[in-house]
Design brief:
Number of strands: 4
Distance between the termini: 64 Å
Structural class: mainly alpha
Number of domains: 1
Strand order of the largest sheet: 1-3
Shape: elongated
Helix content: over 70%
Strand content: 5-15%
Radius of gyration: 21 Å
Largest sheet: 2 strands, antiparallel
Keywords: Membrane, Transmembrane, Transmembrane helix
Order of helices and strands: EHHEEEH
Low-confidence stretches: none
Length: about 140
């Protein structure tokens, strides 16, 4: 049984990056609460045109902000599946892993590669749906 060895430096960098992302998300969530409170006060007495414009910007921004990570995930999953399919092994030789994993070969590896590519395609479809939603919000709440 062949083992694909984990990369310690990669694992440490990944864990530090995840901790930083969690801290950043906590700060952004705290700031979001303050921002929404200010928006509520500002728009509560505003005219309907201002409320429509703010709603349009928030929905478009949310759709695009969620589509960007979905695109990145989809492209990376497609790249992983393609590399595994070409090499006939999963995970591909040059990919780094967080822990030691068993290398799959032949039919099993090709099945996994196909699944990963389909997941990547699904993530790209989700990104397209989110971008379409942003375009719809731009059109629907436009002047």
């Amino acid at each position: 049984m062949e083992i694909h060895r984990a990369d310690r430096a990669y694992r440490n960098r990944t864990l530090w990056l995840l901790a930083l992302i969690m801290l950043l998300c906590a700060v952004m969530l705290w700031q979001l609460n303050l921002w929404l409170r200010g928006v509520t006060e500002h728009l509560g007495g505003g005219d309907p045109e201002t409320v429509r414009r703010w709603l349009r910007q928030m929905l478009v921004g949310l759709g695009l902000a969620l589509a960007v990570p979905a695109i990145g995930l989809g492209l990376n999953l497609r790249r992983l599946g393609y590399a595994a399919r070409l090499q006939g092994r999963f995970p591909p030789q040059e990919w780094k892993t967080l822990r030691d994993v068993r290398v799959l070969r032949d039919r099993t590896a090709l099945d996994w590669a196909r699944r990963v590519e389909l997941l990547g395609l699904s993530a790209l479809g989700l990104a397209g749906g989110l971008a379409g939603w942003a375009l719809w919000a731009w059109w629907r709440y436009g002047g």
